[in-house]
Input
Amino acid sequence: MENVLRPLIVLGGSVVLTLFVGWVVDVVLRRADARHHETPLWGLLRRCRPPLMVVLLAALLRGAYDQTNLKIVEDHEAGIGQVLSLVLIAATAWLIVRVVATVLEASYARYASQQSRDAARVRRVRTQVTLIMRIVTAVVGVVAVAAMLMTFPNMQAIGKSMLASAGIIGIVAGVAAQSTLGNLFAGFQIAFGDMVRIGDTVVVDGEWGVVEEVTLTFLAVRTWDERRITMPVSYFTSKPFENWSRGGAQMTGTVFLQLDHHAPVAAMREKLREILAATPSWDGRDWSLAVTDTTPNTIEVRVVVTAKDADDIWTVRCAVREQLIGWLCEKHPYALPKVSTAEAVPLPGGQWPTRASSNGRAPRPEELGTNNADIRTDDDAPPPGADRQRAAAASQDGSVPNTGRG
Output
């Protein structure tokens, strides 16, 4: 009977105690969250209960599994202890990462709520929090793996030999991973140098997009057509790029129109005022319409509009371009550009010159002289093959045909 109760007490007691502790922690966190509405920390900490329960259960079993007096446990005592130690280390690393992530997320949420009007600072803190979280995860993961390897007796000797040659290995690794280390330090520079932040509108290699993700080694930009451009972070520390969100997200855009010289510029200004007043994306800061250039056939009209960010400036420019052109087509069609042509002048005698002579080339001025009989129009042209027929007839009677080719 004792052989049955002892395993049940050890295993069942560990599970029951773990569940009880998890329930108590959940109740305490819920009450703390209800009392402190100004911070989401206590509510977010409830997500740490699963790793906490795994750590507690693994620790209880690791300390009491040899008290079960089971035959299978006695035969594999070292192996079971090794497995429980590995589970305990992994669960502890999981718990640490989850706690750090919860604290950072709660701090960012509280900061964002206080700085809701300053979007640039919020994006900067978000970028820093993201990179800090990735660094913590990487460090905890490396330490956890090292601790798990040190639990194996054979690995301890390997670890000591690796530590003895750490200097040579470090030099070799530094040379081999030069670009990786460069990207790593570039990631730190981006995160804390405030060069580019998550949510910034940038132009890189001629592509316009929004920074969607920043890691220690690469940066992802989401373009306007939903593509993702992945670039090494070292690009942003070694090459120039456009950051439209630096110094504020407000934008100024232009629309260029090529119109006729008779275009009603004053009426276009009044129409532009009406269009902008009916466009929600226009922020009302500034607008203008002016003639900026002229050519022998057209004038260049430039429209300047403003908006609160890059997305709205694109919408305003498209709306202005579309509605102004539509209004000109409907009300002032003469203002649209057109090709000027002159009337053709007949030759002396009332004849009209053809585009090309009978031999396929353009007629020379001397050929278009006063002898109108030499000028042949398209209506007077012989049918195809007429020259060949006359040549064949002439060959029969011995005469030379007049082909008109001299």
User: Anything to note?
Assistant: Confidence is low (pLDDT under 50) at residues 162-169, 171-178, 367-381, 391-406. The first helix runs from residue 2 to 35. Strands lie at 201-204, 207-214, 218-223, 228-232, 242-243, 251-259, 282-294, 299-307. The CA atoms of residues 124 and 193 lie 9 Å apart.
